[in-house]
Sequence to fold (229 residues):
Amino acid sequence: MADRTADRTAGQEGEHTLDTAFFIRWLTTAAQAVEREADRLTELDSAIGDADHGSNLQRGFRAVTAALAQEPPGSPGAVLALAGKRLISTVGGASGPLYGTLLRRTGKALGDAPEVSPAQLAEALRVGVAAVAQLGGAKAGDKTMLDALEPAVGALGASYATFAEAAGAAGDGALATVPLQARKGRASYLGERSIGHQDPGATSSALLITALADAAGAARASAREDGSR
Fold:
């Protein structure tokens, strides 16, 4: 039987709700993506960073999936809060606090509701991204994770369809960091030598948003299959 993430009113965009199972699926999908892409993330980081971005995130998301299995949260907000806490405690460097802040602040914005709408998630993610910008003192164009996250949250709206648009925007944002000179983070120490390299943080952020779109696609397909029975 499908979980409760479904089209509550068939054919009406904006009537979808996202439950706790959806958020666990999102982060589990993200963890799988990090496992697949860890070597690539580390390769990107070796050019302009400390060559540990992939391994750090791999360790962090393994801790997230273990925590979600051991301590199943009771709401979408609690899922993100727990994941953020685990990332902060297990991921080294700046990535742990930044990703942890993103998820914890997004979870806090969602509150204790057992289900949320895509529009509510979009607004909560904007809060989380703003918190990341404040913590890191960065903005879009500085060659950081914000170059993927800001276009993504700008594309999010009230339906599942916008999740795919957000993933595309995040991917494009990550690619657009190649010609940029880093102005924040470890890569900024390289000055003009950072030009010509794709930012690893933007790349991993795009993986996170793509995992959200993949989870939404799976939920929508499951809901349609369940409705046709």
